[in-house]
Task: structure prediction
Amino acid sequence: MKTIECVPNFSEGRDKAVIRQITDVIASVNGIRLLNVEAGFGANRTVVTFTGAPDAVCEAAFLSVKKATEVIDMRMHHGAHPRFGATDVLPLVPLSGITMEETAALARALGKRIGDELRLPVYAYAAAAFDERRRDLACCRSGEYEGLEAKLAKPEGKPDFGPAVFVPKSGAVAVGARPVLLAYNVNLDMADVHRAHDIACDVREKGRLVRDSNGHELRQPGLLQAVKAIGWYIEEYGKAQVSMNLCDLAVTPLHVAFDTVCERAQARGCRVTGSELVGMTPLQALLDAGKYFSEKRQLPAGANKEELIAVAVRAMGLDELTPFVPEKILM
Result:
């Protein structure tokens, strides 16, 4: 049976009543499994995970965008996470019985429906992108909500679907198809967002811009491939974080990202106190981390799944900010 996942990110993480209205319309669609709802106060953002057959998922996704346009007002939105719309990003993820190409076609059809029926500007990204530059979500979201009106007025800012018109209440939507992605935040023992940003530049694949001896800008790559990262401060925790998207766990596993941030934090005069997973996480990522830290700490071999998960949680401090409940987090 064909099964896909949808992981929409909504620009509301504080008002539970608003979030519930959105998740209720998702759950109302027959055949949908609502797996996880992760609301972040400081980011002012909610990540929802649900799965099902392609038709059901696309219907639930459309209804969620429609509801978000009704209950979220971007003119009032402030938060730590980059965003440019009430439904900021809407990715479809192939899970079984369906190819990435088929999933990308579904994402484009969904984007067209959102543009046509809801009259919102829609940018197609990742595997659904028409333009190679727009494969990168950051390109679609450049300028964020505050710069969206000016971007839409330029030819290069024309959306892939819907009108090139600024909708102040709702902003724009990025709709795409991508592999399983792991959203992961590492906590620092300080509130210095600049230090967090420096560490993020150290580790993320695109690195940072530097100048050579002649004053020319050069791109200095980061340490980790298939990783995107930014630094921010989360007021509710009183901590700065290195916030990462691990785009390919086969290239950069969870434990490698954690260890690398620890090393760079120490080099920049601070330390890591723990970390948190955002949304659903593949079970194998935790098992691989458990095996890695078991070997690193010379723990007895042959641990079962529960023990390996416990080792990973302790080693990476995954329960520092909130309780780690495997049933709610692990796929």
Q: What stands out?
A: The chain has two domains: 3-177, 182-329.
